[in-house]
Automatic annotation (TrEMBL):
The lineage of its organism: Bacteria, Pseudomonadati, Pseudomonadota, Betaproteobacteria, Burkholderiales. The keyword Signal applies. This is Transporter substrate-binding domain-containing protein. The keyword Transferase does not apply. Residues 1-20 form the signal peptide. PROSITE patterns: PROKAR_LIPOPROTEIN.
């Protein structure tokens, strides 16, 4: 005899056997500790863990896919991705942007023994510094006006930029410049990574001279999922789960 109890158990078991849907999420890599490929070949990092945790709160799994910047938006619009990360823009049909997922806080860092004093970004004019590729364009109009290349593509003598942030860190620790301009977490990541091959244990000074942060969002093909993701992200910030993820990469 089939009882209500046995029907209820059957329904529960049936629900448990249905796996959460996996959403295809596109990531642009080589930005550790935010996004990178680890030694096992998996996409990892702060941004990856935050996205996975937020989607898990909504009942979704996540399938990570590595994409170039130029491929990301076409992949979202063409149905090859459900979500793309590390983007910013305005909503349009089929593309719905989230609240900020990760925030880059750029600072200037010098060696403490050099006794460098920086009250504003204009003080960088006195020192040799290294920044990321096209960094001159990312720190406000006044900075761009001073450090953009001239018509021949030449930069000011004290300005150096590196094609990768690994190279940027190496230039600083090799003492070829006085100051590095970089996100704090990126700096600490490469400091640890390079410790086996370079001297990276000098005491440093942090100079908080840039008023603007760089915030990256995610873009969704489904507006309802975007809205629910925003709510999950807000809850993670409130209950400490977001900061717990960041702390793992310090």
């Amino acid at each position: 005899m089939v009882t209500r109890w046995s029907i209820w158990i059957a329904l529960v078991l049936a629900c448990q056997s249905v796996p959460a849907a996996d959403l295809k999420v596109g990531f642009n890599i080589d930005r550790p500790p935010y996004v990178y490929v680890d030694g096992a070949g998996n996409v990892a990092g702060i941004e990856v863990d935050v996205a996975r945790a937020a989607l898990a709160r909504l009942g979704f799994g996540m399938k990570s896919e590595v994409m170039s910047k130029s491929r990301m938006l076409p992949a979202l619009k063409g149905g090859q991705a459900d979500i793309i990360m590390s983007v910013h823009g305005k909503d349009e049909p089929g593309v719905y942007y989230s609240d900020g997922v990760v925030e880059y806080v750029n600072i200037a860092i010098s060696r403490k023994a050099d006794r460098i004093r920086l009250a504003s970004d204009m003080d960088l004019d006195q020192y040799r510094f290294v920044i990321w590729q096209r960094g001159w364009a990312d720190l406000g109009p006044a900075f761009a006006a001073r450090y953009r290349p001239d018509e021949q593509g030449r930069f000011r003598d004290n300005y150096f930029q590196s094609s990768t942030q690994d190279a940027q860190a190496r230039v600083f620790w090799a003492r070829r410049v006085d100051v590095i301009v970089v996100d704090r977490y990126v700096f600490h990541w490469y400091r640890r990574q390079l410790a086996g091959s370079m001297k990276t244990d000098d005491e440093v000074e942090y100079h908080d001279i840039f008023p603007n942060t760089t915030v990256f969002a995610a873009a969704f093909a489904d507006r309802d999922v975007r809205d629910r993701f925003n709510a999950a992200l807000k809850a993670m910030r409130a209950d400490g789960a977001y900061q717990d993820i960041v702390n793992r990469y310090r």
